[in-house]
Design goal:
20% strand; 497 residues; alpha/beta; globular
């Protein structure tokens, strides 16, 4: 029997992870593994995950263009690393400096210890924080007495949820910048059910976040959170050579010979026998996975209609295309600079900071990559990454790179004391702007309903699967988890496997 041929369109993390899981799961069965081919339009794989090694007169720097670490909770990413024998060399964040700060005026204030996203596991630190007024603290303490939402409410914006439970001041000064730092989103449009479901569920199961937190503290479930400030850094890992090593590890698990770069797929055609032909390949495939951004998947899906003769399938394609097309994306840019340590007067003793939208700054967040992980830069230099753009600040992305760098440098001068007495280029080892256009899907209120509808109609299009962060989760671990589920679903349709 000939092996089942599976085409994966898209060589970002989603596509690579599906392909790798297909091989791992297939190898675990006694039947022959499916034959997987992956097609990537650009000249490299990895999508928004990329690492650059920059050699300068000041030394060598390792710079991630996107994510610079991944979480072990949820576990899909670390589980895959274990399967691929890639855990021994993983780095943990340095023990000193774990935590984050929040911008206030021209300074930074540390996030209260034990506060993670929107839960306070240590009330003492919340009572003493200068981030909230006395009134704001009293409102936060009243959270346990706020009635839970009605059972008929299936979704709510993050902004609405936090105002209702914790108060407007806690939202504006603490939660909004933390959430925006993750999703580059507007908290008044971001879906609570789609992005913060564990916390969303706590209200219905425990009645309040305070009661849920007390239960978790007593059971030991919040031991990590109690020692964290803003992010649970103990649960993060990185690769010595940057996150591109994760991509290379998954690539090797799939098999480099199965990957075809510079192969854009413009259209998809169903053959008379129900198989598929891709515009970029002479092969015919039994299954196809679209692991591309939503706007590309919609175009490829729409092209399938020309060779689809069953009206029910045409209607399903139209519904999927409409649903995917309704999911908006945000663009961002990362300003990366390597500057001498003595050029920063007030370098925080934390890994980074976030900026509340009410501060009206261009910078959304900043991180110090060289302070998180060893070996990223010479000891006398600091790698600063500043994030701009997103839903709330799209205008800055219209500026050219030099203008963005100048704007960011000025704000960093105010926030961390970066030397602005001279032109940044005169003393920085390097500066660069990494732009990610339409790269961040926005999970707005009602997103889960859209996902449910898209997934339902995709089941009516035999042989085609969607694997995209527009519907499968944002972040490295959720994407890898969704990819494994897709691989399992595909293999379940192959009787001989």
């Amino acid at each position: 029997m000939n092996p089942i041929k599976i085409a994966i369109v898209g060589g970002g993390l989603s596509g690579l992870a599906v392909g790798c899981h297909l091989r791992l799961l297939g190898a675990a069965n006694s039947s022959p593994s499916p034959q997987v081919s992956l097609f990537e339009a650009s000249d490299r794989i990895g999508g928004v995950i990329h690492t650059e090694t920059i050699d300068t007169d000041a030394g060598t720097f390792t710079v991630d263009h996107g994510a610079d670490m991944f979480t072990t909770n949820p576990s899909p990413a670390i589980d895959l690393c274990r399967q691929l024998d890639a855990v021994d060399g993983l780095l943990r964040p340095k023990p000193e400096g774990r935590g984050a700060m929040i911008a206030r005026g021209n300074g930074l204030i540390r996030i209260p210890e034990g506060f993670v996203l929107m839960r306070a596991t240590k009330l003492g630190s919340m009572v003493t924080t200068p981030l909230l007024s006395i009134g704001g603290k009293l409102r936060l303490l009243r959270e346990r007495f706020v009635r839970p939402r009605d059972a008929s409410v299936t979704d709510e914006s993050v902004g609405s949820f936090v105002r209702r439970r914790l108060g407007a001041e806690c939202l504006d000064h603490i939660v909004a910048p933390l959430v925006a730092g993750i999703y580059t989103a507007d908290v008044d449009r971001l879906s609570m059910a789609a992005t913060m479901k564990p916390i969303w569920d706590m209200e219905s199961t425990d009645g309040s976040l305070a009661k849920a937190t007390m239960r978790r503290v007593r059971s030991g479930q919040d031991s990590t959170e109690q020692g964290s400030s803003g992010a649970r850094y103990e649960q993060f890992r990185a690769f010595p050579g940057g996150m591109i090593e994760l991509i290379h590890t998954i690539r090797d698990g799939l098999g480099n010979e199965r990957i075809h770069t510079d192969c854009p797929v413009e259209s998809l055609q169903r053959t008379d026998d129900g198989r598929f032909r891709l515009s970029c390949s002479d092969q015919v495939f039994d299954r196809v996975v679209l692991a591309t951004p939503a706007r590309i998947s919609t175009r490829i899906l729409d092209s399938l209609k020309a060779s689809t003769h069953e009206q029910s399938q045409v209607s399903a394609i139209d519904t999927a295309v409409t649903g995917l097309g309704s999911i908006s994306y945000a663009s961002t840019a990362i300003v990366v600079m390597a500057v001498p340590r003595d050029r920063i007067k007030r370098l925080p003793k934390t890994f980074g900071f976030v900026v509340p939208p009410i501060e009206n700054r261009a910078v959304l967040a900043g991180s110090f990559a060289s302070e998180k992980f060893a070996g990223r830069s010479p000891d006398d230099h600091v790698i600063v990454r500043a994030f701009v753009g997103g839903v709330l600040q799209p205008g800055i992305l219209k500026l050219n790179d030099d203008q963005i760098v100048q704007r960011v440098a000025g704000e960093l001068g105010e926030l961390i004391g970066l030397d602005t007495s001279e032109d940044l280029e005169s003393f920085a080892a390097f500066t660069k702007v990494v732009r990610w256009n339409n790269a961040m899907p926005q999970y707005e209120v009602g997103h889960l309903d859209k996902v449910a509808q898209i997934e339902s109609v995709m089941k009516q299009i035999p042989g085609v699967w969607l694997q995209t962060n527009a519907i499968g989760g944002v972040g490295i671990a959720p994407v890898i988890g969704a990819a494994k589920r897709t691989a399992q679903a595909i293999l379940s349709t192959i009787p001989s496997v």
